[in-house]
Specification:
The structure is a single chain. The chain has 248 residues and is of the alpha+beta class. It has twelve helices and seven strands. Helix 10 crosses helix 11 and helix 10 (186-201) packs across helix 12. The termini are far apart.
Length: 248
């Protein structure tokens, strides 16, 4: 009887070990999936393969090939050049959070610090989890050294230069616009704010703008659709306030 029990126990342990051994790391899981070819190419170009094959654990928000295809061809080609290795690494590490963060936990958080050093935001929306402006299309893919969440957009961190420039444009617009609006010159205020919005969006191609730009872009679209200068001014003002608040 003891021999039978021991045999069964040994078999269970062996099977468990085989199952554990068969689980692939983050990089190998992405390679095997077949839908992350561009991401894998980028990880190799940035010299991050060994890092993502390390012990971790890591949580990776992985853009699909389709997500990378939304970037302009010249942008992607530029990022993959050897001279832009550091910039590419900065973008890729913006998709990685230390530790295991399952979707259910992420949905309860406002933000998380990435390996890049910058923060990404979490927001549950219509039964889907949003990471900045990207939607999680498949979650909690387990690997031997972490978790993968599949997203439909590439996350772009905001550079310090861009953040500073955006801040300056908004402050200048408010400096001119607030007293003008208070004196009843709503049309001129709306023009100043819309012009500032265009200046902000002109800092980067639409396909590579950081998440912060989304509120400005949305406000511009909403303001353009209304013919009321007063509404336009308020729509843009609210967007500017949101951006400034996020930088504090």
């Amino acid at each position: 009887m003891k021999k039978i029990i021991f045999s069964i126990f040994s078999t269970v342990i062996t099977v468990s070990l085989l199952i554990g051994a068969s689980k692939k790391d983050i990089v190998d899981t992405a390679v095997e999936a077949g839908s992350f070819k561009t991401l894998v190419t980028a990880v190799k170009a940035a010299g991050l393969v060994e890092t993502l094959k390390g012990d971790g654990p890591f949580t990776v928000f992985a853009p699909t090939d389709k997500a990378f295809a939304n970037l302009s061809k010249c942008t992607l080609e530029s990022l993959l050049k050897p001279e832009n290795k550091d910039k590419l690494a900065g973008i890729l590490t913006y998709h990685v959070v230390a530790g295991k963060v399952k979707a259910r936990k992420a949905a309860k958080l406002d933000s998380a610090k990435t390996v890049n050093g910058a923060e990404i935001t979490f927001k549950p929306s219509d039964k889907a989890l949003m990471i900045n402006n990207a939607k999680v299309v498949k979650s909690d893919i387990k690997t031997s050294n972490g978790i993968i969440h599949v997203i439909d957009e590439v996350l772009i961190p905001e550079s310090k230069d861009m953040a500073g420039e955006t801040n300056q444009i908004i402050k200048q617009a408010l400096h001119k616009g607030v007293p003008m609006f208070n004196s009843g010159q709503h049309s001129k205020t709306a023009f100043i704010y819309m012009d500032a919005g265009n200046q902000i969006l002109d800092q980067c191609p639409s396909s590579t703008c950081p998440a912060l730009m989304s509120s400005i872009k949305t406000a511009m679209q909403k303001a353009s659709s209304t013919g009321c200068p007063t509404s336009q001014a308020w729509i843009m003002r609210n967007a500017f306030d949101e951006v400034l608040a996020s930088k504090n």
